TrEMBL record:
UniProt GO molecular function: transmembrane transporter activity
GO cellular component: plasma membrane
Primary location group: membrane
Annotated compartments: Cell membrane
Organism: Pyrobaculum aerophilum (strain ATCC 51768 / DSM 7523 / JCM 9630 / CIP 104966 / NBRC 100827 / IM2)
Lineage: Archaea, Thermoproteota, Thermoprotei, Thermoproteales, Thermoproteaceae
Transmembrane segments: 32-55, 67-90, 131-155, 162-181, 201-222, 234-254, 266-292, 313-334, 340-359
Protein name in UniProt: MFS transporter
């Protein structure tokens, strides 16, 4: 395991997460202040995540064909900085939505290529730990970014001030990435196009699609608390803090047992119960949400990397994102009309179906 490279790429993600998680910590409240509905917020973050994942159908195989993976990684981080910089000047809900979509696409451009480098650095016997270490460092940056955003809102700064402050760690991420590239000595070769996945990859990808549908995006919980903006950011901060131990634990467990693959559907069902209950239960939901997203960042990536290179990573991530989009729109709509029972039924049904497919994908 090339621990030096894993830590350097983790530091890149630390600063990049500081950039974009501080943005995401205030964007739902900003949309609320601009007059957006819960359905629109669910649409923006659901579609944004879906675009960010679905684009990996293309960016993963293209990265494999071109080989090297570093160029896509640099372009992705650079585009992300440009998207957040644009939010400083955005003044209506559609401008904000477009830049959120751009920021998610930048993540799609870089992530399959970067994850292929991490997989190569981890080697066959330590992929789970490699992704776990990377995700933990990643979440430290998320905590710093969300903490900064929460404090700035508490001190009556505006969302645009948060966007502006986030640009400095974004620039730092690019500088550390350059150091990683020059000193790592790891330049994995491409493996050619692989748009057609094998059966296990397809089944696993479908299970992640259903799992994505079952998760209630945290932006909706934040929207429900938007009358007190800093409280909504605090909810997000709790999720970011939880992801650090969750990522390390899940990475360790995955390397020891593939039964770790079956954890997430249970947590999405509990998340739906907490969301329906509302009030302080939303903060419990933030913890449950963090476990599921840690699963997607660690366990699902390690399994996808085992099934293939950037192509498989891109496919599985894309299916997860499409599920998030459908869930975001549906749950946002039912939140607007106050139909929480339907939210619970849909989440439970899709999580159960995901569990069944997961069982088929690994047996």
């Amino acid at each position: 395991m090339n621990i030096r490279l894993i830590i350097l790429l983790g530091l890149v993600s630390l600063f990049a997460d500081w950039l974009y998680e501080s943005m995401r910590a205030v964007a739902p409240q900003y949309l609320y202040a601009l007059g957006a509905s819960a359905a629109f917020v669910g649409f923006v973050f659901g579609l944004g995540d879906a675009l960010g994942y679905a684009a990996r159908f293309i960016t993963g195989p293209l990265a494999d064909k071109r080989g090297g993976y570093w160029l896509e990684t640099f372009l992705g981080y650079g585009l992300q900085i440009a998207a957040v910089a644009g939010l400083v000047f955005a003044r209506d809900v559609w401008q904000v939505a477009g830049l959120v979509f751009l920021e998610r696409f930048s993540k799609a451009l870089r992530t399959p290529a970067r994850d292929a480098i991490i997989s190569a650095a981890g080697g066959k016997g330590a992929r789970g730990r490699a992704f776990g270490i990377h995700a933990a460092l990643d979440q430290i940056g998320a905590i710093l970014g969300v903490s900064m955003a929460t404090l700035m809102l508490f001190l009556n700064y505006q969302p645009r001030d948060v966007f502006l402050a986030a640009l400095l760690p974004g620039a730092t991420a690019l500088a550390v990435l350059y150091v990683a590239y020059k000193t790592s000595g790891v330049k994995p070769a491409g493996k050619g196009y692989k748009f057609l996945m094998d059966r296990k990859a397809v089944v696993f990808g479908m299970s992640q699609f259903l799992l994505g549908i079952s998760i209630i995006h945290i932006s909706l919980s934040m929207y429900r608390l938007s009358q007190v903006p800093w409280l909504a950011s605090l909810l997000y901060l709790i999720a970011m803090i939880t992801e650090i131990p969750a990522s390390l634990a899940l990475g360790y467990l995955y390397d020891r047992s593939h039964k770790t693959l079956f954890i997430a559907p249970l947590f999405t069902t509990l998340l739906a119960v907490s969301y329906i209950s509302g009030g302080l239960y939303l903060f419990l939901g933030a913890i449950l949400y963090a476990v599921v997203t840690s699963y997607a960042d660690v366990v699902a990536k390690a399994e996808a990397a085992k099934l293939g290179a950037a192509s498989s990573l891109g496919f599985v991530n894309a299916m997860w994102g499409l599920g998030l989009m459908m869930g975001g729109v549906l749950y946002g709509y039912f939140t607007d009309v106050g139909n929480y029972l339907t939210i619970g039924i849909l989440a439970a049904a899709s999580s159960s179906a995901s569990l069944l497919l997961l069982w088929r994908s690994v047996t």
